[in-house]
Amino acid sequence: MANKITAIRGMNDIYATDAEAFDFLISNAEAVMQQYGYHSIRLPIVEKTELFARSIGEVTDIVEKEMYTFADRNGDSLTLRPEGTAGCVRAVIENGLTHNQVQKLYYTGPMFRYERPQKGRYRQFHQFGVEVFGLADAQIDAELIVLSARLWEQIGLDNLELQINSLGSIEARAAYRDILVNYLSQYQDRLDEDSLRRLHTNPLRILDSKNPEMADIIAKAPKLIEHLDEASQAHFAEVKAHLDDCGIEYVVNPNLVRGLDYYNRTVFEWVTTELGAQGTVCAGGRYDGLIEQIGGKAAPAVGFAMGIERLAALLLDKNLVPAQRQADLFVVLFGEQVTRPGMVLAESLRDAFPHANVQMNIGGGSVKSQFKKADKSGAALAIVLGDQEVAQRVAAVKPLRDDSPQETVAWDDLVEFIGTKLN
Ligand code: ATP
Ligand code: MG
């Protein structure tokens, strides 16, 4: 036997109940998006490397060490998208979708980051992302949070904590950055390696450190939220007021800074304590400067992305994924001359009952084994064709879920008869 070819580490095949959980989550998310009048957008998985370098920020984990970057046959540097926002912004600029227009968009698909694979962290993972362009009001920040809360309710997740913060304006953040560097510089000898490296490149990220030895320094650090500009303060107050009005509970987490450079004002995360270290299942915020930064005419923007693997894991842990749909009708075929009329019969049932799940036995087998399959399929009725039935142009209809008797029905009357049996 030839050597087995394996998948790439951190890139998983998703099947069986995992795939069911993905589908359940995505179809519910799409339904919520429809409910709020958002539109689908489909974007390339590969973009020019420069797009991510310019949007996510040169000194972020993603750009420094997590991107799958390669030269194509022309020698152009391309990257498998590590997240969806940059490509979405590129697309709306390129297609002129933000000229005096509001866009409310959603997308889903794989993202790629070269991280250490572990529970809830993979190299190919999937996001469901939502982006809104052209609205500066706090009301839209709140709408995004409220609609995500509606999704959790819809799928039965009732234990997620909402953390929010405001990063203020770009200017306020720059001023705060100096204050923070000043404060942290006193502790140079106690900062860990990551933090030392970030001290002069991306000091806000130090606040996001998960190292317990840094916790004390971080807890006592000056808070960005106390250095917000007035307009950002008012904006944040308005977001909170909308959340209060809509009955959405939240915790203000002053150390929530997010990993990407492009955020300003509102940032938020939905967090669970039930998945171990990888607890953030949905994260987002406002990024008013990004469109201009990648070559468009300035327009406000806000969005979020859900981590589908993490949410699917929660749904499965809590048994919230509904069972796969069962069959309604199962066509049993035994004999020499049954496959061709059997196929036509099954198709006529699918024509007549477009919402029914109609399964047909393929590959022969004893009547007994076919009835076993029919029973397992969950079908209410078995429609049985043998050579004798075919010769007489009838089918036997056998109820599988109660003791009512089997009946023989002419092909011409079959649809009507079955219609009375299916509810
Ligand atoms: P983390 O702090 O967990 O690394 P992040 O801040 O890098 O997350 P975002 O870029 O905000 O993540 O992506 C949004 C969501 O996508 C995350 O909250 C998470 O649910 C999911 N996610 C991010 N990276 C991965 C990954 N490598 N594997 C699985 N899911 C991921
Ligand atoms: Mg990360």
TrEMBL record:
Top-level taxon in the UniProt lineage: Bacteria
Lineage start: Bacteria, Pseudomonadati, Pseudomonadota, Gammaproteobacteria, Thiotrichales
Protein name stated in the entry: Histidine--tRNA ligase
Reactions listed under catalytic activity: tRNA(His) + L-histidine + ATP = L-histidyl-tRNA(His) + AMP + diphosphate + H(+)
Start and end residues of each Aminoacyl-transfer RNA synthetases class-II family profile domain: 1-341
Subunit record text: Homodimer.
Coiled-coil intervals, chain numbering: none
Record-linked InterPro entries: aa-tRNA-synth_II, aa-tRNA-synth_II/BPL/LPL, Anticodon-bd, Anticodon-bd_dom_sf, His-tRNA-ligase, HisRS-like_core, HisRS/HisZ, HisRS_anticodon
Gene name linked to the record: hisS
Family affiliation: Belongs to the class-II aminoacyl-tRNA synthetase family.
